[in-house]
Each structure stands twice: as C-alpha cells, then as structure tokens.
Design a protein that fits this description.
The complex is a heterodimer of chains A (268) and B (178).
Chain A (H helix, E strand, L loop, with lengths): L2 H12 L10 H66 L9 H17 L6 H9 L5 H13 L2 H6 L2 H20 L3 H53 L12 H20 L1
Helix pairs in contact in A: 2-3, 2-8, 3-7, 3-8, 5-7
Chain B lengths: L2 H9 L3 H22 L3 H17 L10 H20 L26 H10 L2 H12 L4 H8 L3 H26 L1
Classes of the chains: A mainly alpha (268), B mainly alpha (178).
C-alpha cells in the first residue's frame, strides 16, 4: 500500500467528518460568551470607584497642602515681624514728649529697620527725612551716646550679629536724622514707621499671592489630567493613573487613612 | 444568508447570526476536533471554545480565503493548544511502542468512519497531529513545522511513522478480513 493511498483513505473518509454536538452545547457556548461581558462591566465599576477615590484623595491632598503652605508662610513671617516689633510696639510710646531719648532711639531704630527691609520703604519718605537733616553737632553726639547706651536693650530681643553691623553702617545718616527732634519730624518719622509696617505686610502678601497662584496652576493642570483620564475611561481607552502622580500603593495607604479616620469618627 | 452577511452579523454580535453559524458549522468543527482528540467531551469543549473565539474575533478575518477555512483554522489551533496542555505531543517519540490491537474485520472499502477514527486515536498524539494536518487538512510540512514549532524534518518523520502504523492497522484489518 502506497503511503499516499493511506492518506487518501483517511482524507476521503474523515475530512468531511461531522458529528452532532450534545443538546446543551449551544447553552454552554452562550455561557462561555457571557464571562467577558461580566468582566468588562465589573472593570468599569472598579475603574469608576478608583477614579472617585482618586478625586476625593486629590481634594484631600490639596486642602492638606494649602494648610501646609500657610504654615511655612507663617514661619517665614515670624522673624520679620520680630525685627519690626520693637518699632511697632513703641510707636504709641513716642507720643510722650518727656522721653526724648527713647524717641531718638526709636527714630534711629525706625531708620535702621528701613535698610534692613531691603529697600522696602518708599523713596519719597526717605528723601523727606534726608531733606530735614540739618546738623546740630552736640545733639548728634547726644544721640550717639544714647544709642550706645541703649544698644544693649535691643540686643536682648534681636540677634546681635544682625543688629550691630547695620547700626554701624547706617549710623552717620541716622545720627543726622536724629538731629531734628522737633515734633513734626518725629510725627513724620512715625508715619514713616507706619508706612514701613504696611509695606512689610504687603510683601509677604505678594509672596503668598504668587504661591497661591502657583498652587492654583498646579491644581488646574492636575484637574486637567484627571479630566483627561476620565475621558479615556469613558472612551474605553487605557487609564494611566501614573500620569496623575498617584500609584496604587499611595491610593491604598490613603484608603487606609480614610478608613481609620472614619473608624475614629464612628467610635466617637 | 451568504458569507458577507454572516460576517456582518457576527461583527455586530447578533445572537440570531451566531446561532445560525453555530447550527451550520458546529458539526463540522466537532468532526475536526474529534480527529485530533480522543475524548469526545474534550473535543466538544474545544469546539465550543473555538466558536467563542470565532465570534469574538470576526473583525480579525481579513477576507484571505474562505470564511469557513478561517473558522477551521481557529478550531484546529484551539485543538492543538488543548493537545499541548492535556496530551503533550511527544513529537520526539522514535520507537513504535504501541501494539496495535486488531479490530473486527472489515473490507477496506467498508471501513467505517468510526474505525478509521479509532485508528487515528490509537496513534501517539504527535503522529496523529502531523498526519491530521498533512494528510487530511492538506498543510505543507513547512506550515506544520510553524504551527507546532518543530523542524520540517521532524514533521516529515512523524508523518512517515504515522503512515507506517496506520498501514499496519489497515493491512491487519484486511488480512483478518480475508
């Protein structure tokens, strides 16, 4: 028997082989067709749940971050306000006419603080101060003395390293300024002091604003990303959680935190 | 319903069309599976899995050749995958360790389909697969080598061994018949 013959026998008889499947085969086929649909719908639910969780955690994260930012701003502010405090608190005191020495000192202080604040004071006031400077040497000496004697007092509050050099550097100008102790001048100096304060307050606000703006930009960009991923999800495309800067571990940890919080609330 | 209509209906996942295709082709597809697999339940399971694959992947049919040919190819691949899992092909088997039992005598011309099928089933899985693919399905040794991830030479030797075994059986049945 030729090999081809064998092939032929089997091919002729078996190539058209047909057998009737069992009666329940069609039902089983339908059952096999169903699982992918179920899986798909479940997948959508999971994805929706994870997205909502993501948004919630995102909001939570940002509210947390903004409070953190406020905290850092406050710490930045404290040293500045500390240096400005002496001027601040003693502004009302200058009204007392008898305490000329302290007045002088305060004026000097006020002027010293001005350069310290890195040219935050408005130039017109400075020029006004300078224009009124008419030397009276004895008084100037007096002022210098008072400054030397009362040098120690601020040292307690302000750091010596920062205070004394500025004192020396700005000494000539200030001494000149101190010469005119007339009331109009002091009042003017007072106003200058007040303006200083407002300027000081202004600058942190600007910083705050810029930081807030940055925050806002960050938030909007992230919201855009979230929206994009949500749209991907809706279209049935791949959702990349990584592009939102959030991985599953983070989500899980946040989930746990939320759960703990909830438990605390419930137990309360 | 002609072929393009069938394909269009399947792409839309119409239950009606799926049922129609099933009723038309399930028998043939089960027949194919029965040639590759000894166990009827396995064969039916593989046929159903193949049908599911056909319904879910109609979009991938590129209209190269007939739709029926494409469906058969899917079912054959499904059967091969099942064989790899459940009945390792042992394509490297060299010795004829199987003693063929002589079946009841029948003239060659009268050899029943069941007997031929029985003979096929008694072949080692590797021989059976290559014989099915080459002699009945009509694939070349190169195609078979690609499908089974073996050498062409292995495919050829498997085929000749399968033929030899089958010939023994056929001759045996003839002799006992005479």
């Amino acid at each position: 028997m030729e090999p081809e013959e064998i092939d032929k026998i089997f091919k002729n008889r078996l190539s058209g082989l047909s057998a009737t499947p069992s009666a329940d085969a069609w039902k089983r086929l339908q059952h096999k067709m169903e699982p992918p649909k179920k899986n798909r719908s479940m997948w959508i639910y999971y994805a929706a749940a994870s997205i909502t969780l993501l948004i919630i955690s995102g909001i939570w994260f940002f509210t947390n971050q903004t409070t953190l930012d406020n905290g850092t701003l406050a710490t930045i502010n404290t040293p500045e306000t500390a240096t400005s405090k002496p001027v601040h608190t003693e502004d009302p005191v200058t009204i007392k006419p008898e305490e000329v020495k302290t007045n002088e000192y305060q004026i000097a202080q006020a002027q010293k603080v001005q350069p310290e604040i890195i040219q935050k004071s408005t130039p017109p006031i400075r020029s006004a101060v300078k224009s009124k400077v008419k030397t009276k040497i004895p008084v100037m000496a007096k002022a210098a003395k008072t400054m030397n004697t009362e040098d120690k007092w601020p040292k307690d509050k302000a750091t010596p390293s920062t205070f004394s050099p500025t004192l020396n550097a700005t000494a000539p100008e200030e001494k000149l300024a101190l010469v005119n102790q007339d009331k109009p001048l002091t009042s003017e100096m007072l106003t200058a002091g007040i303006i200083e304060v407002t300027v000081k307050r202004d600058n942190p606000e600007v910083e705050e604003r810029s930081e807030l703006r940055e925050n806002l930009a960050r938030k909007t960009s992230l919201l855009k990303k979230i929206y994009k991923q949500a749209r991907n999800l809706k279209n049935g495309d791949q959702v990349e959680l990584a592009s939102l800067g959030i991985n599953t571990e983070k989500i899980n940890s946040e989930k746990q935190e939320l759960k703990e919080k909830l438990n605390k609330v419930i137990s309360l | 319903m002609n072929e393009p209509e069938l394909i269009a209906g399947l792409i839309k996942s119409e239950g009606k069309t799926q049922k129609f295709v099933y009723e038309k082709y399930a028998g043939i597809m089960l027949g194919i599976c029965l040639r590759y697999l000894k166990n009827r339940m396995d064969a039916e399971e593989v046929m159903l899995n193949g049908m599911v694959k056909i319904f879910n992947n109609v979009k991938q049919f590129k209209h190269e050749g007939s739709f029926e040919g494409w469906m058969k190819r899917i079912v054959i691949n499904e059967a091969l995958a099942h064989l790899r899992k459940k009945e390792p092909l042992h394509l490297a088997i060299e010795k004829d360790h199987i003693q063929l039992a002589t079946s009841e005598a029948t003239a060659e011309s009268e050899l029943a389909v069941e007997d031929l099928l029985q003979m096929l089933h008694e072949l080692p899985a590797g021989y059976r697969t290559v014989f099915n693919l080459y002699a009945i399905e009509g694939y070349s040794h190169k195609e078979i080598a690609d499908m089974l991830e073996i050498n062409e030479g292995t495919s050829k030797s498997q085929l000749s061994k399968a033929r030899a075994l089958l010939q023994k059986r056929l001759v045996g049945s003839e002799i006992s018949n005479n």
